[in-house]
Each structure stands twice: as structure tokens, then as C-alpha cells.
């Protein structure tokens, strides 16, 4: 077995690989960019090398630099993880040319599946069922337009070299085709260096079911159950599970055998995933093959009891597959939720910030957390905004869902927006519990997945007051006389009762509270109501009783910003002080950058008349494009940035003079 390997990746997948390698007695070399000098994977590795500046194009995608580090460190093999260079044929060839084992398939297999159009041709010859569409080499717009008419609508434009939902557009009718094609090509060129497209019939109620396959160097292949990855946003997976609910044993077997046939058709070696679209009538169609370990591989590990990274290392060393097909068994049900720094209420806009507070559920045989970050780390613009993967297992799907709901309630983050509340609503939604799964699940159930807060606003304000006051008490200077009122921070007044004022800002609203402290409890006056409150704070854990209702919550108070966590929900407020002078980052009629990123296109000129909702600027951040739209009808008076410029969150991009009609409507 290898004695030393290099991991050509970062984040949670690098940490995940290190754990298995160390368990097997293998030393690990990490690589890192300037932005990752203090990253968790660097600390976990036996040694680490800096490979360049923060942008991945200048660090993690520098194949020659990584090969150089592998040789210098004496690493016998390179594990590429997923993303970055994991499906790069030139990198796999460079490893081979330098006598370094690439822990993945041969470069020929990567090349065969790297082009989605070429892959479909290979699968067609191998007898694997395909979705109707076009996957030819002729990329002339007229040809694609004709093939689109032939395919029929709705259809899906997909980057031939793509993945992760980038370079993909659903087109409902021909009138949308040209604009969608231009946008998909541009995004694909930026993400993969290749603008070529394929066209597929867009199935209206499909499920996304994929098969984990493994092949060794002798050509033997097995499949290790299937995963359902139907719940997606922007064609990116959000929640995955194994096994796929509702599949018959016959379908499961047919799909598995088709996946192995697909892998063997390209002389595959190692871990791979064959993805299928599964239709309501039970038919399934080849979609693509990912020639690497998948993000969602832990759910397969949980139900099979196998360590897929260990399998990768053994197969790359030259060992046979650890199990025959008849020996592959599954037990129970597993789910994985991807915890992202993003804002679901703003169309899942990626978020940046500091993880100033991070508390995760306890790990056990039922709960697993794969992550590459620790409290205090920054989520930057340079890499994917995934914070962690939360994986749960139990005997049945219902029990596993309950585990997931509970684990999400115990996952608490402050300092950056996350999708935890959304994931909690998703896992607990009745249609999900009943396995009504399609790739359109999120759009079909938006009302269920974006619920109102579980906490009544007044009760939340009372809890916030209790948290603030109890934390102040915990920081009081200890008096020589513990009973002296003069050492307290409760605005005590001699010979009178004094209700101290407390102002809490929630969004744009400022709430005026009055708090009267009595012996072992508080009276909190808010919105014309009186609440009797008892509270006890232990670190970040508040136990409170409000008018006889016992509530336990966690919280984090930092620089007057308070976040309370309750049953998967959060309540955020600011201790308001008049001296703060809160101001809007951008005034009415202006467009502000919603995140750090780069300007891809400016779609207006000074003097242009624009309408509300019209796309004016295209930004790229975290490898995805985002359209910035006009807030109202008006005339463009200033444009402050040009294509290619880097901008910071909150920066004013375009100024618009709002027309009188728009102002009247707003009023």
C-alpha cells in the first residue's frame, strides 16, 4: 500500500480523505492557497505546501505546481477529490508521465466521459438508454436551433464539459432559445473553458437517480446501491438519500447493471457515478457519468458499511475489488444535506462572511459531519460556499428523516447566512416525507419550504432581552458584598422601581422594550403587552419561562448582533444605539452589489430607459452567474463599473433616476 499520498484539493473532501488515509497508516501531503494557510485540511495533514494565490486558477488548478510538490514531497500518488483537477485528462496524464499514481480512472476514461456529447455516443453504442436530444460536434447556432426544434420543448441546454449546474438552462419555447444559449455558453466558457452545448428533452417530472460503481484494474465492476438526488436548486443537489425510495428490485438491478456496463465500456478503474433520469413510468435514461468520487458518497457508505475512499486507495494500488456483487449488502436509510453559505430567500444567493459562531450536532453511529471549516474561518468568494455535509442514518427512511430534522436543529451558525432553516423545512415537509420526489421539488413546494418564523416576534424579543440581560449579569464585576445592588448592571435605583429601556432592531424595525428586574425574574414590556420572564444562561444555552411557557434556545451575541436558534429557525436582531447612525448601503433607484464578485456583462448604457425587473448587470461569484435587475422604472444616470471589474458587496453598480410614475406606485 502507498506510504504517502498528496491530496490535490481543499475543504471537506481533503479532510475526509485524510481521515481514511491516516486510519490506513498513510502519510498525507496537503496543498493550499494563500487564503487557506490556516485551513483545517492543512492542520490535519502531515505536511503542506503553499501553491499560490487565493484564486483557484492560480493555485488549485495549477497542475504543474501540484506535480512539482508531489515529486518534492515524495508522494507516490495523488488523490484529486472532486472538482478542480479531478476530471482533468491532462492532469491525469501528467501524473502518469511523472510516475505518480493518479487515484482515479485512466485519462482515456476521463476524456471519454468529459464531453457529455461524446459520452452519449459511447453509451448509445453500449446499449445504455439515452434521453432524446442532440449531442453532436456541430455547434453552429443555426444547427443548435434546428436541433432544438427537432427535440421539442421544454428542453435543457447543458455544457458538454459541465457539472454542478453551471452552463445549464431550461428553455420553455423557441423565443427564449437564443438568449438562453448565449448565457449558457458564456457561463460554460467562464467555468470550464469550453462553450459547447448539448440539447436534451427536458422531462417534466423526472427523478435524478445515480448508481455508485467501482471497477478494478482487471476489468471487474460492481455497483454499490443507488442514490436519489432529485431535490435540487439551480441544478445543484441539495439533499441526497440512499437507497432511492420506491424503486422496485427489478429496476434497481437493471439500473445497476446498466451503470456497470457504462463503466466497462470505457475501461473504467476506480470510483465513478453513473447518473440517470428516472421517469414516472419507471423508464430511465443515461444522463452523464462523473469520473470521480461524488460529494454525496457518504450516504452510500452509511447504507453499505463500506469506506469508498479506502476502496479507491486499494484499487489504485492494484488490489482487486474488496467485494463481489453478491457480497454488496445494504442496510437502513441515509440522507445527506449540504449546508451552504447562501441566502435561500434571495434565490440562494451565495454568501460570504466569518463563521464567528459554529456549533454542530454530536457525531455518532447515526450522525456524521463532513466539513473543512472550524469556528472563526472565513467563507470567501474564491471557492464553493459549502460549509459542510450533514449525514444521518437510521433503520427506516422515516426514522432517518427524523434524525435529519433533529440534527439540523442542533447545527447552529452565526456570522454568515446559511440554508439551515430551509433544509429543516425541506426535510420536515410532508411531500418529502411521502417521497413525492422530482427535480422540480423545490419550485413545486415553495410555500412549504420558505415558512414564517416558528417564533412569535414578541416572544422572540423577550427571549432576546433575557439573553442580553443574563449575559450582562455573567460579566458583572464580583463585589465584595454579593448582595450589594451597586455592583449590578440592571439600572437599579434607590427607593424606586426603574424599568430600563432596551431597543432591539429587527430588519428595518426598531422595537422599544422596557425591562423591570424583580428578585429572580423580569417583567418585559413590549408592544403594549407585559411578559413575566425567568431566565438562566449557561454559556450559549438559555433556559427561559415566559408567562408559564418553558422555552430553551441557544444564542450568540457579538458586537451587539444577537442570533437566537430555535428548532432549526433563527431570530436575528441588533442592540440598537442612536449613535450607530444606520444607513442604507444604496439609496432608492440605485443598484448595489449583493455579494463580492466580478462584473461579467453590463447590459445598459447611460441614458437608457429601463423597466423594473430588467436585467442590467451580470455578476459572477462562486462560479455562478447572477443577474442584477432594475428596482424600478427609470433612466440610467451613471454606471460605476465595467466588464471584468471586481466589486465588493454593497458597492453601487448603477444609478437610476426613478420616473415619477414609479415613485407614485412605490408610495
In short:
By secondary structure, the chain is α+β, with helices and mostly antiparallel strands.
Summarize the structure in words.
This protein is an alpha+beta fold and about 675 residues long. Helix content is about 25%, strand content about 35%. It has an 8-stranded antiparallel sheet, with helices on both faces. The protein has an 8-stranded antiparallel barrel with strand order 24-25-26-27-28-29-30-31. Helix 4 packs antiparallel against helix 5 (about 105-115) and helix 12 (about 395-410) runs antiparallel to helix 13 (about 420-430). The longest helix has 18 residues, at about 455-475. Residues about 490-495, about 580-590 and about 660-665 have low confidence and may be disordered. GO terms for molecular function: ATP binding; biotin carboxylase activity; metal ion binding. It catalyses: N(6)-biotinyl-L-lysyl-[protein] + hydrogencarbonate + ATP = N(6)-carboxybiotinyl-L-lysyl-[protein] + ADP + phosphate + H(+). Pathway: Lipid metabolism; malonyl-CoA biosynthesis; malonyl-CoA from acetyl-CoA: step 1/1.
Amino acid at each position: 500500500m502507498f506510504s504517502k499520498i498528496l491530496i490535490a484539493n481543499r475543504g471537506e473532501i481533503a479532510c475526509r480523505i485524510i481521515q481514511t488515509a491516516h486510519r490506513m497508516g498513510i502519510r498525507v501531503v496537503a496543498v493550499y492557497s494563500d487564503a487557506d494557510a490556516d485551513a483545517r485540511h492543512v492542520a490535519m495533514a502531515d505536511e503542506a505546501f503553499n501553491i499560490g494565490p487565493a484564486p483557484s486558477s492560480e493555485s488549485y488548478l495549477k497542475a504543474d505546481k501540484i506535480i512539482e510538490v508531489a515529486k518534492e514531497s515524495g508522494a507516490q500518488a495523488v488523490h484529486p477529490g472532486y472538482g478542480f483537477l479531478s476530471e482533468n485528462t491532462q492532469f491525469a496524464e501528467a501524473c502518469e508521465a511523472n510516475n505518480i499514481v493518479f487515484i482515479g480512472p485512466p485519462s482515456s476514461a476521463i476524456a471519454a466521459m468529459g464531453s457529455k456529447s461524446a459520452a452519449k455516443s459511447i453509451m448509445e453504442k453500449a446499449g445504455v438508454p439515452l434521453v432524446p436530444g442532440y449531442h453532436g460536434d456541430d455547434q453552429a447556432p443555426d444547427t443548435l436551433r434546428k436541433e432544438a426544434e427537432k427535440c421539442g420543448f421544454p428542453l435543457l441546454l447543458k455544457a458538454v464539459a459541465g457539472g454542478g449546474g453551471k452552463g445549464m438552462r431550461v428553455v420553455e419555447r423557441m423565443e427564449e432559445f437564443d438568449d438562453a444559449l448565449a448565457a449558457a455558453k458564456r457561463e460554460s466558457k467562464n467555468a470550464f473553458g469550453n462553450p459547447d452545448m448539448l440539447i436534451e428533452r427536458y422531462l417534466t417530472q423526472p427523478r435524478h437517480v445515480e448508481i455508485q460503481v467501482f471497477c478494478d484494474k482487471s476489468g471487474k465492476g460492481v455497483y454499490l446501491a443507488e442514490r436519489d438526488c432529485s431535490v435540487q436548486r439551480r441544478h445543484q443537489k441539495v439533499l441526497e438519500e440512499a437507497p432511492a425510495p420506491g424503486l422496485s428490485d427489478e429496476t434497481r438491478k437493471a439500473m445497476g447493471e446498466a451503470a456497470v456496463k457504462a463503466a466497462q465500456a470505457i475501461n473504467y478503474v476506480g470510483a465513478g457515478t453513473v447518473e440517470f433520469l428516472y421517469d414516472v413510468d419507471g423508464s430511465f435514461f443515461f444522463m452523464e457519468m462523473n469520473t470521480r468520487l461524488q460529494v454525496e458518497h457518504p450516504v452510500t457508505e452509511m447504507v453499505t458499511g463500506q469506506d469508498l475512499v479506502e476502496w479507491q486507495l486499494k484499487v489504485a494500488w492494484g488490489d482487486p475489488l474488496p467485494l463481489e456483487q453478491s457480497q454488496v449488502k445494504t442496510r437502513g436509510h441515509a440522507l445527506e444535506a449540504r449546508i451552504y453559505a447562501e441566502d435561500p430567500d434571495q434565490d440562494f444567493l451565495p454568501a460570504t462572511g466569518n463563521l464567528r459562531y459554529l456549533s454542530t450536532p454530536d457525531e455518532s453511529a447515526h450522525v456524521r459531519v463532513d466539513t473543512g471549516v472550524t469556528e472563526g474561518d472565513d467563507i470567501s468568494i474564491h471557492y464553493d460556499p459549502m460549509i459542510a455535509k450533514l449525514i444521518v442514518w437510521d433503520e427506516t427512511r422515516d426514522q432517518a428523516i427524523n434524525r435529519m430534522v433533529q440534527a439540523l436543529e442542533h447545527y447552529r451558525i452565526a456570522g454568515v447566512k446559511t440554508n439551515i432553516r430551509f433544509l429543516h423545512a425541506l426535510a420536515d415537509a410532508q411531500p418529502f416525507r411521502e417521497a413525492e420526489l422530482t427535480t422540480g421539488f423545490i419550485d413545486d413546494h415553495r410555500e412549504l419550504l420558505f415558512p414564517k418564523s416558528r417564533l412569535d416576534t414578541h416572544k422572540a424579543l423577550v427571549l432576546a432581552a433575557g439573553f442580553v440581560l443574563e449575559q450582562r449579569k455573567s460579566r458583572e464585576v464580583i463585589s465584595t458584598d454579593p448582595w450589594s445592588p451597586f455592583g449590578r448592571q440592571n439600572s437599579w435605583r434607590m427607593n424606586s422601581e426603574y424599568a430600563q429601556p432596551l431597543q432591539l432592531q429587527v430588519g428595518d424595525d426598531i422595537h422599544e422594550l422596557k425591562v423591570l428586574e424583580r428578585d429572580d425574574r423580569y417583567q418585559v414590556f413590549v408592544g403594549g403587552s407585559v411578559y413575566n420572564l425567568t431566565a438562566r444562561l449557561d454559556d450559549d444555552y438559555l433556559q427561559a419561562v415566559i408567562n408559564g411557557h418553558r422555552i430553551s434556545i441557544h444564542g450568540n451575541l457579538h458586537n451587539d448582533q444577537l442570533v437566537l436558534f430555535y428548532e432549526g429557525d433563527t431570530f436575528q436582531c441588533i442592540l440598537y444605539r442612536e449613535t450607530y447612525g444606520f444607513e442604507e448601503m444604496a439609496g432608492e433607484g440605485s443598484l448595489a452589489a449583493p455579494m463580492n464578485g466580478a462584473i461579467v456583462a453590463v447590459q445598459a448604457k447611460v441614458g437608457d430607459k429601463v423597466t423594473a425587473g430588467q436585467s442590467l448587470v451580470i455578476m459572477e461569484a462562486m462560479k455562478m452567474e447572477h443577474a442584477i435587475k432594475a428596482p424600478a422604472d427609470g433612466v440610467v444616470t451613471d454606471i460605476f463599473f465595467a466588464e471584468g471589474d471586481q466589486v465588493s458587496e454593497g458597492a453601487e453598480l448603477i444609478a437610476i433616476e426613478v420616473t415619477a410614475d414609479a415613485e407614485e406606485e412605490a408610495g
